[in-house]
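tmp note - Cardiolipin synthase
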Amino acid sequence: MESLQYLVSEYWPHLAFVLSLAIGGTAATHAAMTKNDVRAAIGWVGVIMMSPLLGPMIYLVAGINRIRQDHISEQRNKSLKDYAPTHEASDVDVAVAAAPQFASLRVLGDRISRFPLRDGNHIRMLLGGDETYPAMIEAIDKAKRSIALQSYIFDNDSEGRKIVDALSRAHERGVQVRVLIDAVGSKYSRPPVIRLLRKRGIPCALFMTNPLGLRMPYANLRSHRKILVIDGCTAFTGGMNIREGFVTAVAGAATAADTHFMVIGPVVLQLISVFAHDWEFTTKETLPYDIWCCDTWEAPMPHVPARCVRSGPDRFIVGTHNMLLGAFAVAQKHIRIQSPYFLPDQSLLGAINTAARRGITVDIVIPGSNNLRLVSYAMTAQLDQVIRSGCRVWLAGGNFNHSKLITIDGAWSYVGSSNLDPRSLRLNFELDMEVYSRDLAGQIEALIDAEIEQSEMVTLESLASIPFRKRLRNRIIWLASPYL
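out:
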């Protein structure tokens, strides 16, 4: 024992050096072997080797993005056929529903989504909390068998408590209720709403808590999905969290904007499938088909083809990324993009820029007033890359707009929870819908065009006029954009 103490006291610098090399070498090897993006691999190996002790700790927390990939994939595979058919080829004629050039995109969706494109859906666009939350509460109050609610942020504020009250009424009349909130998103309000849900006796859970035994959420793996399914027949999905800041009666002149969608039809089965698997992964409870799903829908006209597209750090990684690459490639006239956080990677930038160089009109609308200042700085640092290729970038006036909307050629729409930033495209669990409908695309186009009318065009000259110190700040923050 004394000899061991002597060795430690005498040679501790050498032992620390060997230990740091062993830990750093192991972490660097893991980064090199698991990162598919060469820039990410080089970056992490550099961070680890420059700081062999601190670097591996940072990599453990922020770099291992798919820490539970195999386990998550296994859980998500269980009983998938019980909720929604998979690996079916779509038989919908998208040339009739949308336009002939989308036939190849439908095939791409078959292979990426693993949900078939289903016809017979009715999709209604809802604007902001003034339309969305009352419609959700009305549907909850009509529920007879089951209510499944999943959200990234569910604030314990005036609007959140209205939703809780509606869920409580349903629970008291015997409706099966399940509520799933992201562990990071639940911390946006104090006290968190999950305490109120538990107090009311409503079954609820937090997504991705305590991995590796840590007493904190694993911040890089978040469920950003927004789902509400009533009796397996009616659903709500899109980009809206549950927050009073989107309601005019509360926020007044500072009301933030957003877009959500009410869905009736076969695609609801895909939405409840996603919820059921996230719930089973989180709680180990399997939701029975006969209570949580329905096989017939009375969808109002018009009927449109649609499907869900999952993405996340599991076997569906880069699902949305690949769908958008395909969508931008088939565009023939006009691409409209509205995103609160526009930070596409080089592959998506290449697809967008190539479309513009082909003569496609590309309009990109971003908030002039952003709720995340660092993200706004990083976006500004990257805008010149699309403007030089001929894209038109619009800085929206008015209040912050959280909408995530894409339309192509007035016939195809992509809506849901995904932002065009590294976190949404690779780290978050996201859920979007592709919709082949000229009617819906026309509504979204009108919404985006109205935003453009109140916007200021960003030009190379306006970017160059930004003081150098601010441009340098923006570029430095842009370097950290994958973790904003």
